[in-house]
């Protein structure tokens, strides 16, 4: 079993920044694809960014490239999502996801088996 716990959401004005954290624990392998997803009210959940835990290769959806950065601190078993230049359209519930023993091929995980509980991000104009 794998546990994922997100934190760091909040409310900011457009142009502001937030950093989300996802602390993971449990039966993790060396090679995992960790990702961030988001879901706005009335919309489907969408992949935002992903990172491979051993190579640190990263992928982003086009709308966040240049503004968001996914990173990891293996000593803390934590994946981060630094979000800068936030826009109202970034408003959503953000979720951390894990695809265990897998490579990342895009910003969408192939098999997101484990999910966190989500953290709300609200950006006002």
Key attributes of the depicted protein:
125 residues; mainly beta; seven-stranded mixed β-sheet; four-stranded antiparallel β-sheet; 0% helix; globular
What report would you give on this structure?
This protein is an all-beta fold. It contains no helices and eleven strands. The strands form two sheets. Strands 2, 4, 5, 6, 9, 10 and 11 form a seven-stranded mixed beta sheet that branches. A four-stranded antiparallel beta sheet has the order 1-3-8-7, with no helix packed on it. Strand 4 (33-39) and strand 5 (46-52) form a beta hairpin. The termini are far apart.
Main sheet properties: 7 strands, mixed
Radius of gyration: 13 Å
Order of helical and strand elements: EEEEEEEEEEE
Beta-strand content bin: over 45%
- Identify the overall geometry: globular
Class from helix and strand fractions: mainly beta
The strand count comes to 11
- The total of helices stands at 0
Q: What percentage of residues falls in helices of 4 or more residues? A: under 10%
Average pLDDT figure: 96
Gap from first CA to last CA: 40 Å
- Taking pLDDT < 50 over at least 5 consecutive residues as the criterion, the unreliable ranges are none
């Amino acid at each position: 079993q794998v546990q994922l716990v997100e934190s760091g959401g909040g409310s900011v004005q457009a142009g502001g920044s937030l950093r989300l954290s996802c602390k993971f624990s449990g039966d993790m392998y060396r090679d995992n694809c960790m990702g961030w997803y988001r879901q706005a009210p009335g919309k489907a959940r969408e992949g935002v960014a992903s990172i491979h835990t051993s190579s640190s290769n990263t992928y982003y959806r086009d709308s966040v490239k240049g503004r968001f950065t996914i990173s990891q601190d293996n000593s803390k078993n934590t994946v981060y999502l630094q979000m800068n230049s936030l826009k109202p359209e970034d408003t959503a519930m953000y979720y951390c996801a894990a695809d265990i023993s897998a490579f990342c091929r895009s910003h969408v995980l192939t098999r997101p088996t484990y999910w966190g509980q989500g953290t709300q991000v609200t950006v006002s104009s």
